[in-house]
Amino acid sequence: MTWNNSDLETIASADELEISPQRRDGSLRRPTTVWVVRDGDELYVRSWRGGDGAWWRTAHSSHAGRVTAGGVTKDVVFTDENDAAVNDRVDDAYRTKYQRYSAYVGPMVADPARATTLRLTPQ
Fold it and tell me: What InterPro entries has UniProt attached to this entry (predicted)?
């Protein structure tokens, strides 16, 4: 499934996204606020804490959850993004979108966070 243009634009333009990965028992974790960026017709998130982020460990394990941003709520699939070229573009997207938060952008484009890049796909 792909994003419809309206939801893609709305979520991509939001400063923050609430992410609720699905636990093993099917329940959702309480929402965690993360940054979201767009590359083409895809949306991506990363864990600022790298692989130590609790929400990321759950998302990485279940590959399913729910996101909310800009009034849009969607159930999503989380897919690891390991393509170096895509990750380079995601780095650029973080630098561009969040440049006013320069102290936080560095960790978001550093190797530990980059290794946690997840593509969001609507279910």
Answer: UCP028498 (IPR016888)
